[in-house]
């Protein structure tokens, strides 16, 4: 049976922190950027936790260990244990362990987070293609990762060694802007070898499975800033999602989202976890939210009314997604978004 296509953001009469038992939070662009906490993140997470919601931090960044991530969050004022952090390194290590013998050697192209995750699964990290690895794993290694590491991976992959990647995010937010992510590094090896890796991270099922296994969440809410990882991962896992606009996604990208990239809810930042979500209603040929009405005009989306800018964006989402159906909305939304300051 095909899944129904979302044509508008949903409403919630309860605060999201009450409606869901566990928040599965992305980190970069949601909780922090460039190592610094995003505005309203610390106090919003504290309030959600005090109300009984479990907080779990789910990141495609395989560089740092869960202990290091938890330490960083705690320093920011968000008390966190290593057991509250789930990384793509853990997901890919489990994936590898299911396909190679216990104690097998794995060539690591990446950081300490990958090495620790492999050891947790009883695998042995090695550094050279000449160490007879049973698999190659590639994860984000930070700006210090030497170019020769990509050559090492290419030598092994070209010999037929199975290749795995923690994730394929092409970019990663930083305090100075958008930087190349692990996906860009994976492309280097792909170009050199013509091979395709098995990928574990968001938005693919191995990451969602790892998250549920480690948290035991029964009513999870995925909270993220990226449509192609966080929101698509929630779609693939058939769970609800909250998109926050503190990271890489802007209003135009949201309006043009295909079905698998359409979040359940949209809000400005993590304060959206602490409130209900307004209803978007159909009104003739348009959609209303708050004081705004959005409709499809001649080759563009039109917006009338006034009120909170987020309500206008939610109304525009409904107009765009309903018009697109299971496709992508190509209508010009520039003037409508400009009215909202987005």
Write up what this structure looks like:
α4 (88-97) packs across α5 (112-120) and α4 (88-97) packs across α8. The strands form 5 sheets. The chain has a 6-stranded parallel sheet with strand order 5-4-1-13-14-15. Strands 7-6-8-9-12 form a 5-stranded parallel sheet. The chain has helices at residues 16-19, 41-50, 66-75, 88-97, 112-120, 147-158, 182-193, 205-215, 227-237, 251-255, 309-324, 334-340; strands spanning 22-25, 32-33, 36-37, 54-59, 85-87, 105-109, 124-126, 135-138, 163-165, 171-174, 177-180, 198-199, 220-224, 240-244, 265-267, 281-283, 286-289, 292-296, 301-305. The protein is an alpha/beta fold. The chain has 12 helices and 19 strands. β4 (54-59), α3 (66-75) and β5 form a beta-alpha-beta unit.
Summary tags:
342 residues; alpha/beta; six-stranded parallel sheet; five-stranded parallel sheet; 12 helices; globular
């Amino acid at each position: 049976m095909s899944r129904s296509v979302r044509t508008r953001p949903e409403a919630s009469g309860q605060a999201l922190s009450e409606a869901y038992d566990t928040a599965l939070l992305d980190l970069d662009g949601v909780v922090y950027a460039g190592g610094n906490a995003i505005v309203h993140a610390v106090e919003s997470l504290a309030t959600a936790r005090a109300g009984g919601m479990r907080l779990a931090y789910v990141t495609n960044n395989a560089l740092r260990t869960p202990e290091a991530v938890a330490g960083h969050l705690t320093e920011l004022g968000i008390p966190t244990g290593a057991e509250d952090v789930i990384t793509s390194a853990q997901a890919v290590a489990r994936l590898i362990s299911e396909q190679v013998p216990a104690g097998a050697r794995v060539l690591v192209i990446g950081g300490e987070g990958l090495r620790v995750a492999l050891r947790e699964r009883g695998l042995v990290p090695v550094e050279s293609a000449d160490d007879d690895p049973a698999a190659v794993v590639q994860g984000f290694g930070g700006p210090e990762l030497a170019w020769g590491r990509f050559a090492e991976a290419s030598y092994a992959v070209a010999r037929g060694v199975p290749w795995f990647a923690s994730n394929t995010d092409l970019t990663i937010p930083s305090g100075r802007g958008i930087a190349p992510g692990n996906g860009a590094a994976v492309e280097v090896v792909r170009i050199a070898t013509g091979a395709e890796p098995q990928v574990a991270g968001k938005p693919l099922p191995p990451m969602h499975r790892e998250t549920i296994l480690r948290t035991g969440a029964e009513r999870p809410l995925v909270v993220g800033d990226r449509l192609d990882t966080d929101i698509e991962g929630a779609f693939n896992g058939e769970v609800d999602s909250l998109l926050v606009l503190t990271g890489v996604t802007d209003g135009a990208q949201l309006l043009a989202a295909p079905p698998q990239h359409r979040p359940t809810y949209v809000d400005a930042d993590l304060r959206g976890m602490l409130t209900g979500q307004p209803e978007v209603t159909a009104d003739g040929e348009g959609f209303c939210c708050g004081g705004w009405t959005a409709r499809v005009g001649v080759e563009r989306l039109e917006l009338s009314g006034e009120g909170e800018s987020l309500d206008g964006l939610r109304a525009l989402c409904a107009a765009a997604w309903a018009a697109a159906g299971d496709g992508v909305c190509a209508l010009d939304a520039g003037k409508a978004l400009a009215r909202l300051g987005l």
